[in-house]
Amino acid sequence: MTSLNDVLPVDRTALLTTLGPDGPRTRPVAVQPDPLDEPGVAAVLTLAQARKAADVRERPAVTLAGATPDGFYAIEADAEVVEDPALVARAMAHFVGGDVPEGGAGASAHEGPATVLLRLRPRAAKRWVVHSPRPFDSDVEDLEV
């Protein structure tokens, strides 16, 4: 059985769907490793005032989806908004490829907009392996989370 770590889109772009007051909202996000190194957990940086952060605060159920070399995946997860400056700085350093001092990830008005981290803890995941563009020519697999 394929595991979630085999398809988790770390250091890639994926589509994140949150549930807002007016229904689902989907947008591309840059996915990166969890700064706490928890297996299977993905992280996304965003502005503290971003709609996706507000959506997650209100309704933590999200879906992360995208393409694999041979098909597609969808991960249903519980997300949390993390405001810890040390974790945000660690994630920002990974994102920009260098060191960001603690508090240097936009933690004050003098440095720019505040940045938070969304941590996505998977509950369920599926992968579709597409063999051809013909209808019904694919396999669906539940992933181990």
From TrEMBL:
Domain of life, source organism: Bacteria
SUPFAM superfamilies xrefs: FMN-binding split barrel (SSF50475)
Domain Pyridoxamine 5'-phosphate oxidase N-terminal: 6-126
Annotated InterPro entries: Pyridox_Oxase_N (IPR011576), Split_barrel_FMN-bd (IPR012349)
Designated name of the protein: Pyridoxamine 5'-phosphate oxidase family protein
Native source species: Brachybacterium huguangmaarense
